[in-house]
Every structure is written in structure tokens, then in C-alpha cells.
Specification:
118 residues, alpha+beta, Nuclear Transport Factor 2, Chain: A, five-stranded antiparallel sheet, binds 2-acetamido-2-deoxy-beta-D-glucopyranose, Zgc:163030, disulfide bond, Prot_inh_cystat_CS
Length: 118
């Protein structure tokens, strides 16, 4: 009986240890340092890559995860809307995006990873 408990306990310790080793995705707060930078970067890249002249803005952050991979990979799901700036500024056409941003601050490098799930 006691032996069984010890085995289960070891199993949990190993699983947690492995999780750290491979650097799984963990939930982080939207206000954590680095998240806003990554998010602003992703949205400006998203605006550069879209083919129409309408500005896209975020209307809400649904969730943020991060993973340590020779730097930090942020996976950010945001509600977006396509604005109609050329007319009266009324927001229209809401949609949701999940951006993956890879940040390596020591190289001043940030990249928006594909695929962008929008
Ligand atoms: C994002 O959009 C979904 C679907 O429209 C909505 O249910 C959810 O409340 C929104 N979340 C945020 C944080 O804006």
C-alpha cells in the first residue's frame, strides 16, 4: 500500500520534471512583461500583411500562453475587428486571431510565426 503511494508520487514528480524540460506552453497574464510588446508587434505585422486598406485593431485578449524555446514564444489569442477608417470609423467585421510570436530580446529580434490562425 505504502509502496503504491510512493510510485504514484514519483510518477507525478517525473511528469512535472519532464514538463519543465521540454518547455511546455504555460498560461500567462496579459500584463506580464513582454506580452504587450509581442501583441503589438503581431498586430502591426498582421496589418502589414493584409491586402485591404482597413486598419485591424484588437477588441479583447482571449488568452496568452508562453513557451521557452531559445527565447520566448508567445501564443496570443485575440478578438480583432476590421475597422472602416475610410468612412466613419465604425468598427465592423469582428474575427479572432491566434498569433505566435517568437521573441529573443538579447538579439532585439521578434518574429511572427506561421501559420497565423485568423
Ligand atoms: C471574444 O469573442 C468571443 C466570440 O465573439 C466572445 O465570446 C468573447 O467573450 C470575446 N472575448 C474577449 C476577451 O473579447
Amino acid at each position: 500500500m505504502i509502496l503504491k503511494v510512493v510510485f504514484i508520487f514519483l510518477g507525478v514528480v517525473c511528469a512535472v520534471g519532464l514538463g519543465r524540460l521540454v518547455g511546455g506552453l504555460t498560461d500567462v497574464d496579459v500584463n506580464e512583461e513582454g506580452v504587450q510588446n509581442a501583441l503589438n508587434f503581431a498586430i502591426s505585422q498582421h496589418n502589414l500583411k493584409t491586402e485591404d486598406p482597413f486598419l485591424r485593431v484588437k477588441t479583447g485578449v482571449v488568452g496568452v500562453k508562453k513557451q521557452i524555446v531559445s527565447g520566448i514564444k508567445y501564443v496570443i489569442t485575440v478578438n480583432m475587428t476590421k475597422t472602416n477608417c475610410m468612412k466613419d470609423g465604425t468598427p465592423e467585421m469582428p474575427y479572432q486571431c491566434t498569433f505566435s510570436v517568437w521573441s529573443r530580446p538579447w538579439l532585439s529580434d521578434m518574429q511572427l510565426l506561421e501559420p497565423r490562425d485568423c
